C-alpha cells in the first residue's frame, strides 16, 4: 500500500514547491502611501450629499477607499509617509474622519505608522500637533516630535523621521539592525548624486531636501512629499499622493504601493491605483490666424468633446485678441460647464 501511494505523494510535493506561488518565501507585506492631504479644499463646487467642498470630500473618499482595501487584504503594516492632513490646523470634521478610519484599522489589528509632513508640522512648537490626538489608539504610531524614532513591530523595525529642523542629522542616527526587517520613512525632496540641483521637489517654501546616499542596508525606504509615484532606487520609492492637487499631476495615476519583502533579501513593489476624479488639461486653442467665429467654435468644441461633467478641466486660450475676448459669450460657456467640478 505504501508503494502504491508513493507516486501520488511525490506529485503533491512537487506542486507545493514548484507551483506558481511559493508562499514559503513571502514574508512581509507593507502598504506605503503618502500625501493624502485630508481637509484640502479648492474651487467652489459643493458636494450635494454633504454640503461640503467637493474637493474636500474627494480627499476623504480616496483615503477611505485605501482603508477599505487594507481591511479586505490586510498587510503586516501600513506606512503613511507624511502630509496626512493638508494643514497644521485641520477642521474638526477632517480630524473626525481620520479618527474613524484609524479606529477601523486598529480594530482589525493592522499597525499604522505615520510621520508628520511639512503641511501639518507647526512652525512654533507651542502650537501643538494634531497627531497627539491619535497617540492612544492601539496599533497607531505617530511620529511628529521633531526627531528620529524607531517603532518595533515583532520582527519589523520602522526607522521614522518626521519633517524636522535637522532632518539630515536625524537621518544619520539610523542604525540598521540585521535581525528582522528594517524600514525607513521620510518626508522630503531628494538630492540625487551626479545632478546639480535637487529633484523630487514640490516648490514649497518649507520643504526639506536630503541626501539618501548613506542610507544603505535597509529593506525599504518609504518616501513622502513628491506627488508622483516614483522609483528612486531599488529600495526607495515615493508612493505619490492619493489625489490630484494641481494640473501638473494631470497625467499621474494615484494610489499606493504594496511592498513584498522576501526572506531571500529581494522585494517586489506593486502599484495599486485608486479610483479618483478625472482632471483634464485640454489641448490649447491657439488663436493666431483665426477669426472671432473660429475661436468661439473651437472653444465650444473643446468643451463639448471632453464631456466636462464631474471633471476638473482646464482650457487655455492663447493669443486671443482683446476685442475677441470681450465678444465671447461667457454665459454660454458657463451653461456648457455647469456640471463640471471646475
Topology:
Elements: H1 2-18, E1 26-33, H2 54-72, E2 77-80, H3 92-107, E3 112-115, E4 140-143, E5 149-153, E6 156-160, H4 167-171, E7 181-187, E8 189-191, E9 209-211, E10 220-224, E11 230-233, E12 236-238, E13 255-262, E14 267-273, E15 279-281, E16 285-286, H5 292-306, E17 312-314, E18 317-318, H6 322-327, H7 330-336
Parallel strand pairs: 1-2, 2-3, 3-4, 6-7, 7-10, 8-9, 10-12, 15-17, 16-18
Antiparallel strand pairs: 1-13, 5-6, 11-12, 13-14
Strand order of the largest sheet: 4-3-2-1-13-14
Which structural class should the secondary elements be placed in? alpha/beta
Low-confidence runs: 1-25
- Rg result: 25 Å
User: Shape, please?
Assistant: elongated
Write the H/E string, N to C: HEHEHEEEEHEEEEEEEEEEHEEHH
Strand content: 15-25%
- Average pLDDT figure: 89
**Count of individual beta strands:** 18
Question: What is the helix content?
Answer: 10-25%
Termini separation comes to 76 Å
Number of helices: 7
The major beta sheet can be summarized as: 6 strands, mixed
Q: In a few lines, what is going on in this structure?
A:
The chain is α/β, with parallel strands linked by helices and 342 residues long. It has seven helices and 18 strands.
What does this 3D model show about the protein?
This protein is an alpha/beta fold and 342 residues long. It contains seven helices and 18 strands. The strands form five sheets. Strands 4-3-2-1-13-14 form a six-stranded mixed sheet. Strand 1, helix 2 (54-72) and strand 2 (77-80) form a beta-alpha-beta unit. The longest helix has 19 residues, at 54-72. It starts with a helix and ends in a 6-residue tail after the last helix.
Amino acid at each position: 500500500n505504501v508503494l502504491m501511494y508513493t507516486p501520488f505523494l511525490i506529485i503533491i510535493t512537487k506542486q507545493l514547491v514548484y507551483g506558481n506561488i511559493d508562499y514559503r518565501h513571502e514574508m512581509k507585506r507593507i502598504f506605503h502611501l503618502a500625501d493624502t492631504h485630508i481637509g484640502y479644499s479648492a474651487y467652489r463646487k459643493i458636494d450635494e450629499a454633504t454640503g461640503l467642498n467637493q474637493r474636500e470630500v474627494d480627499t476623504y473618499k480616496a483615503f477611505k477607499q485605501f482603508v477599505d482595501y487594507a481591511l479586505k487584504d490586510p498587510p503586516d503594516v501600513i506606512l503613511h509617509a507624511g502630509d496626512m492632513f493638508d494643514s497644521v490646523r485641520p477642521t474638526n470634521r477632517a480630524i473626525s474622519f481620520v479618527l474613524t478610519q484609524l479606529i477601523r484599522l486598529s480594530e482589525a489589528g493592522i499597525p499604522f505608522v505615520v510621520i508628520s509632513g511639512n503641511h501639518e508640522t507647526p512652525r512654533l512648537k507651542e502650537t501643538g500637533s494634531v497627531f497627539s490626538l491619535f497617540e492612544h489608539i492601539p496599533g497607531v504610531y505617530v511620529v511628529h516630535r521633531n526627531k528620529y524614532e524607531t517603532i518595533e513591530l515583532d520582527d519589523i523595525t520602522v526607522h521614522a523621521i518626521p519633517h524636522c529642523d535637522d532632518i539630515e542629522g536625524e537621518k544619520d542616527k539610523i542604525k540598521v539592525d540585521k535581525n528582522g526587517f528594517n524600514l525607513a520613512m521620510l518626508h522630503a525632496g531628494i538630492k540625487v548624486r551626479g545632478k546639480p540641483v535637487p529633484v523630487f521637489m514640490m516648490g514649497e517654501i518649507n520643504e526639506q531636501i536630503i541626501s539618501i546616499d548613506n542610507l544603505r542596508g535597509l529593506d525599504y525606504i518609504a518616501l513622502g512629499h513628491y506627488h508622483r509615484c516614483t522609483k528612486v532606487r531599488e529600495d526607495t520609492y515615493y508612493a505619490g499622493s492619493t489625489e490630484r492637487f494641481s494640473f501638473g499631476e494631470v497625467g499621474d495615476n494615484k494610489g499606493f504601493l504594496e511592498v513584498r519583502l522576501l526572506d531571500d533579501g529581494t522585494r517586489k513593489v506593486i502599484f495599486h491605483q485608486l479610483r479618483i476624479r478625472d482632471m483634464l488639461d485640454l489641448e490649447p486653442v491657439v488663436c493666431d490666424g483665426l477669426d472671432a467665429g473660429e475661436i468661439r467654435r473651437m472653444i465650444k468644441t473643446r468643451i463639448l468633446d471632453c464631456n466636462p461633467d464631474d471633471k476638473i478641466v482646464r482650457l487655455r486660450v492663447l493669443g486671443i485678441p482683446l476685442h475677441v475676448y470681450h465678444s465671447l459669450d461667457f454665459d454660454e460657456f458657463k451653461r456648457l460647464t455647469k456640471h463640471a467640478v471646475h
